[in-house]
């Protein structure tokens, strides 16, 4: 079944939601309020459900309308970008790539690939949502972004996952810590020290706890934080040691911190590309994803 709606219908809906007013939206779009109302009614008929809740003083999106907002916004941005891009040809053609990416990958890995990509396609813009695993999956599922870089483990049948790399969990400690003298450590060796972990709501913590449970190992944490960067700050201050993905750790030339492999068992998270099943990417996103897979998978 095809859904037929015009770009102006989508603009009308998004404008009313953002301005919370039919009057202001009509002025912005340079149309009469009756014409604007007809656009909204037409879109609601196509969708088959109300998208806006109207009162005498206020207009807001329904639950379905709220779900559609990020998708509509991205569709309009891509459409507008395409209109400007058709004036260019070859590698100079413009475009927009929208990505939901784990903060650690966004900080340590993406800049290198984007720099290389921009050298070849200098007019393609990026919108990067650095989000935790669960929020990143939701952004992909809702259509707010074209694809995501996330931890493997989603059971959503509407999403697909393509493996990019393994990211092992490692020990992070100060260079003057007793464990820094070892080439690698075992989980039991962490027990005498104050351990810093991320909160159990974190996808990293969930993965780590589940893997350790198979070996009857339970981490005894002393500090629990929300962000991996916070745990590194506490380690640097000498308050304890931390277990975190290698991708989230400083480079080897850090003045105070070191990392060491943890064995028996070795645990890693699988990083990959998450996409909507059956979905299509913009030409710009297709080109970037091809380079991303080539660089990271190499």
UniProtKB/TrEMBL annotation:
UniProt keyword Ribosomal protein, yes or no: no
Domain HTH lysR-type, chain residue ranges per copy: 1-62
Pfam families according to UniProt: HTH_1, LysR_substrate
SUPFAM superfamilies, per the entry: Periplasmic binding protein-like II (SSF53850), Winged helix' DNA-binding domain (SSF46785)
Classification via PANTHER family: HTH-TYPE TRANSCRIPTIONAL REGULATOR YBHD (PTHR30419), NITROGEN ASSIMILATION TRANSCRIPTIONAL ACTIVATOR-RELATED (PTHR30419:SF8)
Top-rank taxon, per record: Bacteria
Native source species: Rhizobium lentis
The protein's name in its UniProt record: LysR family transcriptional regulator
Keyword Transcription regulation attached: yes
Similarity remark: Belongs to the LysR transcriptional regulatory family.
């Amino acid at each position: 079944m095809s859904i037929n709606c015009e770009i102006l219908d989508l603009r009308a809906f998004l404008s009313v939601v953002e301005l919370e007013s039919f009057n202001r939206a009509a002025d912005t779009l340079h149309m009469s309020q009756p014409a604007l109302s007809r656009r909204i009614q037409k879109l609601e008929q196509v969708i088959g459900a109300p998208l806006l809740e109207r009162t005498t003083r206020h207009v807001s999106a329904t639950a379905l309308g709220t779900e559609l907002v990020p998708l509509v916004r991205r569709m309009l941005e891509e459409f507008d970008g395409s209109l400007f891009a058709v004036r260019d040809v070859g590698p100079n053609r413009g475009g927009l790539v929208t990505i939901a990416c784990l903060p650690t990958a966004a900080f340590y890995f993406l800049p290198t690939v984007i720099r290389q990509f921009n050298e070849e396609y200098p007019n393609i813009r990026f919108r990067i949502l650095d989000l935790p695993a669960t929020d990143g999956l939701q952004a992909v599922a809702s259509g707010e972004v074209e694809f995501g870089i996330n931890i493997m483990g989603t059971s959503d049948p509407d999403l697909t996952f393509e493996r990019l790399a393994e990211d092992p969990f490692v020990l992070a400690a100060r260079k003057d810590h007793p464990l820094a003298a070892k080439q690698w450590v075992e989980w039991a060796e962490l027990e005498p020290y104050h351990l810093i972990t991320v909160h159990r709501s974190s996808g990293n913590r969930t993965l780590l706890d589940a893997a350790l449970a198979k070996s009857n190992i339970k981490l005894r944490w002393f500090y629990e934080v929300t962000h991996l960067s916070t745990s590194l700050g506490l380690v640097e201050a000498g308050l304890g040691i931390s277990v975190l993905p290698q991708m989230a750790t400083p480079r080897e030339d850090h003045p105070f911190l070191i990392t060491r492999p943890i064995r028996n068992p070795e645990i890693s998270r699988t990083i990959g590309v998450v996409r909507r099943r059956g979905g299509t990417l913009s030409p710009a996103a297709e080109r970037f994803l091809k380079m991303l897979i080539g660089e990271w998978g190499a």
